[in-house]
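okkk here we go again. third time trying to get the copper (II) ion bound version out, last two times i messed up the smiles copy paste (missing a bracket lol). double checked this time i swear
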Amino acid sequence: MANRRSVPIVSATLALTLAFPLNARTGHNEVNVVVNFGDPVTLAGAGNHVVVPEEVLIDKDQNVTFVVHGAGHGIALYPVSANTTRDGIAAQLCGHDPVTQECTDPLFANGDHTILDGKGNVIIVTGPNPPFQRVDDPTDRLFATSTQVGNLSGVFLAGATETTAGTQLQFRFTKAGRYLAVCMNRNHYLSNWMFGFVTVGPGREDEPH
Ligand SMILES: [Cu+2]
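finally!!
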């Protein structure tokens, strides 16, 4: 469902990005790709717990701006192997009812889960909740917005509402590779599959001549 929904939004986002390159350095060709963290139309419920688009492709040294929609989201970013797929990650998360698309195990999100990439490398170990209130494994992670310190879980990001813009976080990808962006909300990620990928190409200077 998210795939179908993402198509027109990607087009609109790219059009906006190209129409308004807000960069004070004239002559500097800045590319900024928007990834919506939370569905920008459906602002509540499981339908909000998606990353739109689920896949983006950029060149090295380009930016991704994560724009947060709806409530309860935290963003964490991990490098993964190039052969890591959406299906491969989803197969390690809560199984979904084929009709309702809902997680069939209400206890799943609080369990201890280990997420592997396509090569079998350990990417995320969640530990159980309690005490781990977030999807919050710092190992090899590039950044996290809502990490737990001691017993205090980090606050989630302010998302866009009908009338208010949400948090906009920009990350500059300086190394080629494939990256997994997950929601740090255990229910959103582990139960509702709220994750997406950024693939970073080698960049022009690295291309063979
Ligand atoms: Cu979320």
